[in-house]
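Inverse folding, one chain.
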């Protein structure tokens, strides 16, 4: 046990740990060893001795009367000492005092040495796991990339991300995606867990709206520097997405900078998302105007926000010409579903008697044959 502190810097450097945290782990290892080889129900303290570069084990024991019943109880007796025996250590001790007794683990031979070795290994490993866990816990919602090392029978994809293995479950893959060993893929960190059996588990996702947002930040400098903010986003993975954007600078066009010249930026993101179509919308804090924008390409006549008794939005009633309803709903209901995701409430469509002209303006329908022609042309 001589100069055990000499290994602190070596461990810290090799494992990338803070020296102070390594010292604390060693102290815990010494205390646990003392409990195992001396007495599990005893109170020990580990004290770092900087001069000798050792860790001293000190037992704290309570002084009681010679005839105290606690001394007769086998389970708790080791935590107490009679005043007569205590005065052999310190002749000034009194009843109720806390006497401190030094212990040398070397006196317990190979048993003590092997137990200490196991405890140090265990607590250093736990320290490493805690550091990695905290590192990735702080990365939830950020982009991660790595190489595929395995695809199991359930089509879960295992990816080597830096020093650990992450999993991309099949449910978190975009429909139609197939990965094989050696592929390099990007995903967003969705969840980080740690348990005694499996250790650290990092779950990735390519279907989360956050993945879309991180890809946009990677492709669009204005989003990365805060000139453009993604206010809201919603997506049906692999099919279509809607992103509400707002500019924080009067000379920056939120939608234009995100789309890029000839759509080069948004197309790069779409390609990574397996061809997902991405609608960019300028955000506004005027609810009715925002709803009219997110219902694009449908042209709507009126928006009514219905609130509940608590004053919260309960549903949105959209009035629109009959010839715009199919556009509002979208293929397989995709447009109205995305709009509902962005607003967070259900959307109800109500047809009126209006129609849209060739120029896209809403007009009152005419009577008879003219009305039918206006409706279906």
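Residues assigned per position:
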């Amino acid at each position: 046990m001589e100069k055990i502190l000499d290994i602190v810097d070596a461990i810290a450097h090799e494992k990338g740990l803070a020296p102070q945290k390594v010292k604390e782990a060693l102290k815990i290892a010494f205390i646990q060893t003392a409990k195992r080889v001396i007495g599990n129900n005893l109170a020990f303290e580990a004290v770092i001795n900087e001069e000798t570069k050792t860790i001293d084990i000190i037992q704290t024991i309570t002084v009681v009367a010679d005839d105290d019943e606690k001394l007769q109880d086998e389970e708790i007796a080791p935590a107490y000492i009679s005043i007569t025996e205590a005065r052999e250590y310190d002749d000034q001790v009194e009843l109720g005092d806390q006497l401190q007794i030094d212990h040398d683990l070397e006196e317990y031979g190979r048993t003590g040495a092997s137990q200490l070795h196991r405890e140090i290994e265990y607590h250093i490993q736990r320290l490493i796991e805690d550091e990695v866990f905290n590192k990735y816990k702080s990365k939830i919602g950020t982009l991660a990339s790595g190489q595929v090392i395995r695809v199991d029978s359930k089509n879960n994809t295992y990816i080597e991300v830096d020093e650990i293995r992450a999993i991309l479950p099949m449910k978190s893959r975009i429909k139609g995606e197939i990965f094989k060993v050696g592929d390099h893929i990007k995903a967003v960190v969705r969840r980080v867990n740690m348990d005694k059996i499996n250790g650290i588990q990092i779950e990735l996702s390519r279907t989360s709206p956050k993945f879309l947002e991180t890809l946009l930040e990677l492709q669009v400098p204005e989003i990365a520097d805060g000139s453009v903010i993604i206010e809201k986003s919603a997506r049906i993975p692999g099919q279509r997405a809607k992103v509400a954007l707002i500019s924080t600078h009067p000379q920056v066009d939120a939608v234009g900078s995100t789309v890029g010249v000839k759509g080069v930026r948004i197309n790069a993101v779409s390609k990574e998302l397996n061809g997902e179509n991405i609608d960019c919308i300028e955000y506004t804090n005027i609810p009715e105007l925002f709803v009219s924008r997110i219902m694009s390409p449908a042209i709507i006549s009126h928006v009514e926000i219905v609130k509940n008794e608590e004053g919260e939005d309960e549903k949105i009633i959209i009035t629109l010409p009959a010839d715009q309803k199919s556009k509002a709903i979208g293929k397989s209901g995709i447009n109205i579903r995305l709009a509902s995701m962005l607003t967070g409430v259900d959307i109800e469509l109500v047809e009126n008697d209006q129609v849209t002209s060739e120029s896209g303006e809403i007009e009152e329908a005419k009577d008879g044959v003219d009305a039918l022609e206006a409706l279906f042309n």
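The CA atoms of residues 50 and 350 lie 79 Å apart. Confidence is low (pLDDT under 50) at residues 367-377.
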